[in-house]
Design a protein that fits this description.
Elements lengths: L4 E11 L3 E11 L5 E12 L1 H19 L4 E6 L2 H7 L8 H19 L3 E6 L6 H11 L4 E3 L29 H5 L5 H8 L16 E2 L16 E7 L4 H5 L17 H18 L12 E4 L3 H14 L3 E3 L16 H7 L1 H9 L11 H18 L2 E6 L1 H12 L3 H4 L9 E6 L4 E9 L5
Parallel strand pairs: 1-4, 4-5, 8-11, 9-10, 9-11
Antiparallel strand pairs: 1-2, 2-3, 3-6, 7-13, 8-12, 12-13
Helix pairs in contact: 1-3, 8-9, 10-11, 12-13
């Protein structure tokens, strides 16, 4: 059964900080953009941050009330709240610790029921509906609107009030006025520009980075959804845990399976990828998502869990295998650093360097680029479960990085990296090393 996708937009404010405070939150159906619930409340004297966390909690409560098994994306223009709830920033203020803990309790209940909650920063201009509700709260208004509870309206459609229905204290404004954009804008942001991250604004169209133009490419920029490729690094193995060089060929290195932590990570990555993509190409539901894995066991196990979440099969392609480290495969990195530091260092800066009997980065990059080009040519949406070096090779190509700079990018186990490519060779890195689903 396909998980329902919901979007929470939340905000809070304080006139004085601390001062007269209030919060606002709403829940949308991700497919239609319809508003399913709205909340606003005054908070008395409080800070901006307390108000923002209160808006988050209200949004989570309404989403849980709607469907506790849903894939929920929380969108806020508070970088602080998004980063703290994603686990990247510490929380020091006691009031905020208490509110964050309350929010996490709700998120854990949703996860236990089979849902997932992820957090995303958005620019303030895309959070105007929640901002308007928070201003209602600061004005002393208490608002609770749940159109779906009226009974006769299918979930996901906001009904129109009839003349004999009592009006709420603050009448519902049309979505076009609240958002200053089309009614389906929320769905458009979910599907077409899901890469907004703290400190970033929406990506320009057409995308700026360009791959080598395909032979049959049209002249001029090509619009449309293009091809989306989501790269998932496999979950943790015992070799990763022990600090070994885990490559393509050695027992205990290239052929090892996911450990218990790795299996849990892979399941979480599957949930995160499904929450991001839904079941179809660019969210249209028409083209099933493909799942392709490397031929190595740890990546293929991860691919099987991802594919099961999408209800499709998992294809295997050896060109997505990890780099072959030859005689170094499966060896402790600490031991290699002591015995042959020069070679270990050269692997990070010289694309032609190779371990005895192994493969150079240049060799790896050639096969990965061929595999990547095949997926781009096929089109649609593809999830690839693979390894750190192949992901770095793709990013290096798209962003024009050399090996030394590519090594500076962290690709954590079970992380997600998304890239879109268009027929004219344009490409856009939507996000890198997303691990919000693991927290």
């Amino acid at each position: 059964m396909t998980a329902r996708r919901l979007i929470i937009e939340a905000d809070g404010g304080s006139r004085g900080n601390p001062g007269v405070a209030g919060f606002g939150a709403l829940v949308r159906d991700a497919g239609s953009g319809a508003v399913l619930a709205e909340r606003a409340e005054p908070l008395g004297l409080a800070s901006n941050n307390v108000a923002e966390y209160s808006g988050l909690i209200a949004g989570l409560q309404e989403a849980e009330r709607l469907d506790d098994r849903a894939a929920i994306e929380v969108r806020m223009d508070s970088k602080l709240v998004v980063e703290q709830m994603s686990g990247r920033w510490m929380i020091r203020h006691e009031d905020m610790k208490r509110l964050a803990a309350e929010a996490r309790v709700i998120a854990k209940r949703i996860a236990a029921a089979g849902g997932v909650v992820v957090y995303r920063w958005i620019p303030r201009e895309l959070n105007k509906a929640a901002d308007a509700l928070s201003n209602d709260g600061m004005d002393g208004k208490s608002i609770t609107r749940r159109p779906w509870e009226r009974g006769s309206t299918p979930l996901g459609v906001t009904p129109q009030a009839t003349p004999d229905e009592p009006q709420s204290e603050s009448p519902v404004e049309p979505d076009s006025q609240r958002l200053e954009q089309p009614a389906d804008a929320a769905a458009a942001v979910w599907d077409a520009a899901p890469a907004a991250r703290p400190g970033q604004t929406q990506a320009p169209e057409p995308p700026p980075s360009r791959l080598p133009r395909p032979k049959q490419a049209k002249s001029g920029p090509v619009m449309g959804p293009g091809t989306r490729i989501v790269l998932v690094r496999h979950g943790t193995t015992d070799a990763n845990r022990d600090g070994r060089l885990a490559g393509r060929s050695a027992p205990g290195g290239g052929s090892d399976d996911l450990n218990a932590d790795g299996q849990a990570q892979a399941r979480a990555a599957a949930i995160g990828a499904h929450a991001f993509l839904g079941d179809g190409c660019a969210g249209d539901g028409a083209t099933p998502v493909r799942v392709v894995s490397s031929s190595l066991l740890r990546a293929h196990r991860t691919g099987q869990l991802v594919a099961a979440r999408f209800g499709v099969g998992c294809e295997s392609e050896s060109d997505w295998d990890e780099q072959d480290f030859g005689g170094f495969d499966g060896q402790l990195v600490s031991a290699l650093s002591a015995s042959d530091p020069e070679l270990l260092s050269s692997l990070r800066i010289d694309p032609q360097a190779r371990c005895p009997g192994g493969e150079s980065y240049a060799d790896l990059a050639r096969r990965v680029q061929e595999a990547f080009d095949r997926l781009v040519a096929a089109g649609g949406t593809i999830v690839v479960t693979t390894h750190r070096m192949p992901i770095l090779a793709v990013l290096a190509r798209v962003l024009g990085m050399d090996l030394e700079h590519a090594w500076r990018v962290n690709i954590a186990p079970a992380s997600l990296t998304s890239i879109r490519v268009w027929e004219d060779g344009a490409a856009l890195v939507e996000f890198v090393n997303d691990t919000a689903h693991l927290r």
